[in-house]
Amino acid sequence: MKTNAARILDGLKIDYELREYKVDENDLSAQNVAEKVNMPHSQVFKTLVARGDKTGVIMACIPGDMELDLKALAAASGNKKVEMVSLKEVQPLTGYIRGGVSPLGAKKRYPVFLNDSAVNWPVIACSAGIRGCQIVLAPSSLVQAVNAKLCPIARGE
After folding, report:
1. What CATH number is given to the structural domain containing 8?
2. Whole-number Å distance between alpha carbons of 23 and 15
3. Which domain holds residue 65?
4. Whole-angstrom Cα distance, residue 74 to residue 128?
5. For residues 22 and 16, what is the distance between their CA atoms, to the nearest angstrom?
6. How far apart are the first and last CA of the chain?
């Protein structure tokens, strides 16, 4: 199934692989997704939507087994303070539902911050924009596609 995210990569002539999996509505965790696409938790990146006091809405892609460091994200994005947007705001802002937020192809192009651990992998996975489908691609390809900034924005759980 082609999603907007996949179409964007096609348009940029970027190589990727789509991995579909059965969605468990009771467990949308990145860990569960990682197991279903047969990849280590730290190689499957979840996309979180946050708002900075200066920049407005930003996206953070971090490994599934880590949590977002809001202070580090604020520093990386030029904000004094960053907070997560509420769940009810995610879809109106991005066009995506929880468990299916992709750094690619949101309603509006928001700045994307990718945790720097991504470069430790030949490929990483992120949501293809729908629940049940991940895009597997080289970290450098994701950086190129969304003009992401690599920075240390996650910490171990």
Report:
1. 3.90.960.10
2. 25
3. 4-156
4. 26
5. 20
6. 33
pLDDT digits (tens, 9 = 90+) for 13-23: 999 999 999 99
pLDDT exceeds 90 at position 29? no
pLDDT digits (tens, 9 = 90+) for 44-66: 999 999 999 999 999 999 999 99
Q: Total structural domains in the chain? A: 1
CA angle in degrees (0–180, nearest 5) for 27-4-130: 10
User: Are 50 and 68 in contact, with CB atoms under 8 Å apart?
Assistant: yes
Please return the burial class of 119, using the count of CB atoms within 10 Å of its CB with bins 0-12, 13-18 and 19+: middle
Radius of gyration of the chain (CA): 14
Strands 124-127 and 45-52: unpaired
What six digits make up the tokens of 21?
A: 């999996």
